[in-house]
């Protein structure tokens, strides 16, 4: 009878967050990220910032030959996050799932390998710095093939001694693919493609992004946790301030941990960049601040306006936005004993001559959170792979009432993976 081996499948789980009420005259939104256990080495970074990447423990060394031609694809598919729709919103923890079923020809030896490649609009890790795909294991917990991520888009499986003298080997894989915010910077149609030898899977998806929280004048706050390194307790947050280049006066911007906090042993790094580009900032919430043609580091220029507290919070004051867009980069080491992190970005400012108000106050709030818990993995063997960290956002609809306008919001979030 054929011997079937299987890569572990990840069980879906959910955690309901308690409701949070936000004060009057305030607009709020939230993003929640999922953090999984980090127990594997990572091969190569997607981001150009070398500090985003954990130390590589070992390369994927194949001592045998490429046997991709001996891998027969019996079933393959690309599936959206929700049945019946091709819409994928990465800010709502939505992703694409790659599914394979394989038959392996005879004559495969230990050290032999096969590869498949992903199109440049997807990756395998989310905001984790770790690159890892699940190993293929037999039902008796033997490793059949070890999975590696090479050059970001290439997945390689290297066979182990288990395959010696085996016949009729089959395997299946279910792998989450995440929309790459560095290449898919705007909403719209994207064709995702995966190639394994002569086999090619291709499907079009409609990518949607959330646009943060905004007032009726277009002043907007958005943000995203761009890195969560559980091995080093490192977090990086990016905040968009006024990406629509609107106007406002007497602005105060606060960034702080509403839940959890920084390690007392480290000092965070906060930098402020003025966006010089004529086009809008990426809808995916991504900023290559090394691009000096588009981003000007104004941190030193704002030294008298930027203050950093001992608890890791920052405060930035501006006399006026002057139709300028800013990006605030926050990087630090969080307290490893905290079970939950919630980083909040709040903007408070005034609009002149609105109705019978000489100065009308507005407050915008955007939350980015991380909940730490382990996945439930099942399949052949006891392996619990390190799964990517997933972004999650919840848009909050604006509810305006009477004069003066009163905006009340109640947030019930769901963490899903």
CATH architecture of the largest domain: Sandwich
Number of DSSP E strands: 33
Q: Within the CATH hierarchy, at the fold level, what is the topology of the largest domain?
A: Immunoglobulin-like
Total number of domains: 2
Number of helices: 0
Q: What is the 3D shape? A: elongated
Distance linking N and C termini: 35 Å
Strand content: over 45%
* Spatial order of strands in the largest sheet: 23-24-20-26-27-5-29
Helix amount: under 10%
**Sheet with the most strands, sense and barrel status:** 7 strands, mixed
Name the quaternary structure: single chain
What value does the average pLDDT take? 77
Unreliable segments of 5+ consecutive residues? 2-26, 32-58, 374-417
Structure description:
The protein has strands spanning 3-6, 9-10, 14-16, 20-22, 26-35, 71-79, 87-88, 96-104, 113-118, 122-123, 136-137, 143-150, 154-159, 169-179, 188-196, 199-207, 213-214, 220-229, 234-241, 249-259, 269-275, 295-297, 306-308, 314-320, 325-333, 340-354, 357-372, 377-378, 393-394, 400-401, 406-407, 409-411, 414-416. The chain is mostly beta strands and 417 residues long. It has two domains: 14-36 and 210-416, Immunoglobulin-like, CATH 2.60.40; 42-207, Immunoglobulin-like. The strands form eight sheets. The chain has a seven-stranded mixed β-sheet, with no helix packed on it. The two termini are 35 Å apart.
